[in-house]
Amino acid sequence: MNIRERLRMSMNRAIKNSPLSRAQIAGEMSHLLGVDITKSQIDAWTAESKDNYRPPAEYIPAFCRVTESNEPIEILTETAGMFSMPGPDALRSEIQKYAEMESRARAEKRKRLVFLEEMENKR
How far apart are CA 26 and CA 13, in angstroms? Predict the structure, then answer.
């Protein structure tokens, strides 16, 4: 469950792959969160030598959105035993779940109709 290093490395990869500078990432995060985020904070969160500095969990979604990397939040969810999906994929999954529930409900309804018919024929 100690994910500090994995999270730090994933944030560094996200920054490296982002077209934005660390200062721009901080600015965009500040805008999204309504609090001041500085380049120095991002540097501390991602520095190997600053083991005591971690990003607050409530900042991770903004970081992911700004850097366009889901890896940091995926590390958190997978460690918790869950999986994260982009919005459209999550909706598709939910729609499939409802389709399966409908199918099971139709099968149960058919069973009951057959049972009812058998009961009525025995009279």
Answer: 16
- Provide the pLDDT for residue 24: 98
Could you count the other beta carbons within 10 Å of the beta carbon of residue 78?
13
Q: Where are the domains of the chain?
A: 4-79, 86-123
Q: Which amino acid is at 118?
A: E
Residue in the structure block whose two tokens are 């009812």: 116
| Single-letter code of the amino acid located at 77 | T
Single out the residue of 5, 3, 11 nearest to residue 61, CA to CA. 11
Give the model's confidence band at 1: pLDDT under 50 very low, under 70 low, under 90 confident, else very high: confident
- CA 113 – CA 43 distance, rounded (Å): 66
Task: For residue 44, count CB atoms less than 10 angstroms from its CB and return exposed for 0-12, middle for 13-18, buried for 19 or more.
Answer: middle
User: The whole model's pTM is what?
Assistant: 0.71
